[in-house]
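ugh ok fine here u go
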Amino acid sequence: MDTAAGQEVVLKGVAAAPGISLGPAYLYSKLIPRVEEKSITPEEVEGEIGRLRNANARSEKELLKIHAYAEQKLGSQNARIFEAQIMILADAILMGAIETRIARELKNAEFVIADEITKYKQIMLAAHDEYMRERARDVDDVMNRIIRNIQDQKLFSKLEGASIIVSETLAPSDTVIFSRNQVLGYATDLGGVTSHAAILARSLKIPAVVGLRTSTKTVRTGDIVAIDGYAGLIVLNPTEETIQTLERKKRRFMEFEGRLVNIAGLTAETLDHKHIELSANIEFDTEMEFSREQGSAGIGLFRTESQLIGRASYPTEEEQYQAYRRVADGVFPHSVIFRTFDVGGDKISPDTEHEANPFLGWRGIRVLLDRPELFLDQLRAILRASTQKNVRIMFPMVSTIQEIRRAREMVSRAQKELDARALPYDPGIKIGIMIEVPAAAVLAEEMAGEADFLSIGTNDLIQYLMAVDRDNAAVAPLYQQFNPAVLRTIRHIIDAGHKKGVWVGMCGQMAGDPLATVLLVGLGIDELSVIPSVLPEIKKIILSIKYKEAKRVADKSLAMSTEQEIREHLSSIIKNKVPEIPFDE
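structure:
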């Protein structure tokens, strides 16, 4: 992109870590090792395997150093991100398979490593779940680290002066290593709010914007850049007026955030005493501490697929139990909802097969019901972690009543098997389903009659309702969470659940949009589960409104015909009811 000197250019991305800063850019082009396929002789096999083992040992030593530094700077919980990478290096099955292929195929170590690990990475990258694509980049980082060490390449990590790092993507290790310098912000073309780099940036309190797409083609080293981690944008060559505007905004946000600290321990309750359960979406137990600090009342969605990363097989019941128990113990006395494996189709799975249309394919509960032993392993593990009676189970991608009944039968079977082994569990454990398929939304009342709770997964539900792939730039504007059709569907689901006497929550991205809070409260939502970083803002809005007023806002919104009308209406309500919330000027 051609930008004249001094011309202001605004690039819009996704807000990943809050904050505003101004400074020179440093364009970081990470060295990606070049891998060539080479043949070796049988006599060279031993030496080639030796190269692999030496590189693996060096990689482990590097990661242990990074882990120790992260632990010192960020605490043990956040540092555990790097334990997963160290575990990949220590995976005897994976490394054994690579050594076997070197000996059998007589190929060089770099090629076999890249080929073997890329198989798993490509499955993850094909996923339309943002967080699973991010885990693929973590695996990619481990692979490149091993290959760089085989080739004896050095990594760059030293900066001169304060800079805003602009890069195509950043691995968690990049984020931590760069933090030893004067980093003013991170801006990347790729990535999402669930990336480990984003999580670490939030912990380091460094502004970050991801998903910018073209920043590395637009920005050059030395360019003056402003980064706005609240609005999710960067400004190249900002004018004096823009700088002053951002400075005012920065002061307002800092003042606002200072006040939010005081509400973390408060219950999310409207002025007329309507209680909303406000919890967090996480996928690793490393995120629990930050969630608590932000004021969550438990975990409303724990994505169990994180355990599948970098594995050639599914984890055992015991491995899963240990992981789930850590989460259940860590969140007690609050509750945690474990979503069973949402795998298959486009999502990561050790045995995923190619499908012509994975979004409408073999995934979620469909996979688990077709794989009863896999399902039972997970159910027994979750049940075993439920002894403190703060664990709930949730099934994804449900589309028929029969699926719920079959899944509940599997829970009963798992309970009987634990009884036979004299292992304790919560016999009254609550079982819920995600409403993310239009068929389930239409049958919400019948679904509620079979479940203990409903949780609306807006990400998929909106895509299916609007027939829009939100990652397709050509149609992305049609992904409208405030479209009247979406709002009326949500109202129907909530009313249906309440008619059957079950609570209804929401765990999709819409739950974490402050613009939607008053509307959702007015629609009668019982629980909101959001990314931890937005918890205080959502809580502040709930504490500032009356339920009876929120109902009027919802009724008026439902009578409108376009998303634009609804957005403008909700924006005016927020500015009126919670004027201290900073908005973009």
